[in-house]
Amino acid sequence: MAELLPLRDAVAMLVRDGDVVAMEGFTHLIPFAAAHEIIRQGRRDLTLVRMTPDLIYDQLIGMGCASKLVFSWGGNPGVGSLHRFRDAVEHGWPQPLAIEEHSHAGMANRYVAGASGLPFAVLRGYVGTDLPKHTANIASISCPFTGEQLTAVPALRPDVTIIHAQRADRAGNVQMWGIVGVQKEALLAATRALVTVEEIVDVLDPVPGQVVLPAWTVTAVALAPGGAHPSYAQGYSERDNGFYVEWDAISRDRDTFLRWMNEHVLDPSLVR
Amino acid sequence: MTSARSAEATLEWSADEMMTVAAARRLRGHTTCFVGIGLPSTAANLARAIHAPDLALIYESGCLGAKPDRLPLSIGDGVLADTAVSVVGVADVFNYLLQPGRIDVGFLGAAQIDKFANINTTVIGPSYERPAVRLPGAGGAPEIAASCGEVLVVIRQTPRTFVERVDFVTSVGHGAGAGDRARLGLRGAGPRAVITDLGVLEPDPETFELTLTCLHPRATVEQARAATGWPLKVAGDLEITEPPTPQELAALRGLEATLTA
Fold first, then answer.
1. Is residue A113 domain-resident?
2. Rounded Cα gap, residues B134 and A75, in angstroms
3. Which residues of B are catalytic?
4. Residue A175: how many CB atoms within 10 A of its CB?
5. Does some domain include residue A272?
6. Which chain B residue's Cα is nearest to A126?
7. Domain check: are A259 and A174 in the same one?
């Protein structure tokens, strides 16, 4: 059953140095508050898994939390580059970052396989591209029934998956809606699961398009209103497009970035 | 024609606007369009505003049939979910809608494109491990390029972007030329047109090499050649694009104004 915990305690309990950590949320419901707590707690040597690293992993990478990134699209959506990610790949700052690169279809299927308890997923993908030359775990496989050549990718099984959702009830059942991305699959693929939520309510009133994750699939729930900012939580907040644009300038320069992180993330008064 | 000519005389428009309008015009007779963010999203929404109101826009965020009244900054903006016929998970979009060939046309951007319309959005430079420029990567593009009925690409034409061979094949266009898509088992027809700020290139029906088939007004063949990193072939019956109409320009500017609002 999911435990209701303060965010600080939940992160301390569930995220360890060296873990494979997936923090999902496809543009919507990105768990920034949890990432900031990971940064404050100084986790190191993480393998970060996420389809679209976005600003959340730009921050974790720039703060030296990650030694490896598994991803499929590493840009600032609608704006341009992720400068901290690029600085790590191009110049090894603040430390070298190993990368394992896939396509969205490949990543989504890897989560599906993980959530399904299967060792790998099969798809029509990657064929003719240069990705298999550089990413070891993309393999060709023939269909046992027809002999058709297809592509296999191994299951993703994160040590911990962290997502942000709109609501949970007091038993720890989690409810989210709007763009639901791959959060369900990423959460069910993981050994431990942390969900931050906008609010905790007595009863989860049904919402069109909702996904409800039963409490027994979740390790811990932490209250973090506004915890998806600068992304958004449908029904609670709007995407802060202006901040995504501003991040380009903040993140371009190492000192400006560190100053921003000191003021907005590391300051002890920000702990939830 | 007369009205278009007089419009050209009275309307100021940029090469980028011409590119987006020309790209939007190519979305005709399609039912479903898989939309990449940036230029493709602008062009697809312009097509919906002008001549393709029923075109179902599919975004990889899971928004099916989105009808945004403003341009989304990202493929996951709330306006896409709010206006969609259905919002599904990302795995569902790729597995149930794209992979079986249910999407008519894929609309992609690129950082580099080569003479067989292969697309690079991964790295610039000879080394993947130590790239000169690290680009965002694949996203949904490899499978969009593989599995949509056909593909349109919109990209500004410069010697940096139009190269003989891409540094990295992120998404397959026509591979090494005629017959390559079939050999690779790719089921969609691949890129049918590449729309640029100078004109439109289409694969030669026999060799599949990109050939200049349309030139935008004010652009020249010499300009297009100079902006292409291989000896550019020009169609014998080279067409000249109609300039943007006042209606197209007003719709485009109306859409773009919503981005900065």
1. yes
2. 10
3. 60
4. 19
5. no
6. B142
7. yes
